[in-house]
Design brief:
- The protein is α+β, with helices and mostly antiparallel strands.
- It folds into two domains: about 1-80, no CATH class; about 95-130, no CATH class.
- About 55% of the residues lie in helices and about 20% in strands.
- It has four helices and five strands, in the order H-E-H-H-E-E-E-E-H.
- It has helices at about 1-25, 35-45, 50-70, 115-130, and strands at about 30-35, 75-80, 95, 100-105, 110.
- Strands 3-4-5 form a three-stranded antiparallel beta sheet.
- The longest helix is centred in the N-terminal third of the chain and has 23 residues, at about 1-25.
- It is globular, with a radius of gyration of 17 Å.
- The protein starts with a helix and ends with a helix.
C-alpha cells in the first residue's frame, strides 16, 4: 500500500509539472502515443504490479482530467511505425545507436531517436485530424 500511495503522489506531482510547463508554453493539445493492448500487457506484466510503468498509466489518467480543467486536450495516437521512418524526409531509419540515442535514415539525416519519434507522432496526429476535417 505504501508503494501504491507513492505512485499516486508521484503521478500527481509529475502531471502538475507537465501542465505547468504546458500552460507556460501556451499549449492547447498534448499528444501521447498509444500502444496496442498486447504490447502494453506484456510490458506491464514484466514490470510487476508497482513498477514505474504503472506510474506511467497513472500519469496518463491524471493528465487527462487535469489538462481538461486547464483547457488543454489530451489526444492518444497509435504509435505504430513512428520510430521506423525519418521525420524530416520520410525515408527508412537504417541505423540507431542506443548508446548515443542517434538514428540515421537512408538519406543521411541524423537526429535524436526520441525526438524523431515525437515528430512523427505529431505528424500522425495532424494527418488523422486532416482526414476527419
Amino acid at each position: 500500500m505504501h508503494l501504491k500511495h507513492l505512485s499516486e503522489h508521484y503521478g500527481h506531482q509529475v502531471t502538475s509539472q507537465i501542465l505547468r510547463f504546458a500552460v507556460e508554453q501556451d499549449v492547447s493539445v498534448i499528444v501521447l502515443p498509444r500502444y496496442n493492448q498486447e504490447y502494453s500487457r506484456n510490458v506491464m506484466k514484466g514490470s510487476g504490479n508497482w513498477g514505474p510503468l504503472h506510474l506511467s498509466t497513472r500519469i496518463r489518467q491524471y493528465l487527462d482530467y487535469k489538462a481538461w480543467k486547464n483547457g488543454i486536450i489530451v489526444i492518444e495516437v497509435h504509435a505504430t511505425g513512428i520510430s521506423k521512418i525519418c521525420a524530416k524526409c520520410g525515408a527508412e531509419i537504417i541505423r540507431t545507436d542506443t548508446r548515443t540515442e542517434l538514428c540515421c535514415c537512408a538519406n543521411g539525416h541524423q537526429t535524436n531517436r526520441y525526438l524523431n519519434a515525437v515528430r512523427n507522432l505529431g505528424k500522425k496526429c495532424l494527418t488523422q485530424f486532416g482526414r476527419g476535417a
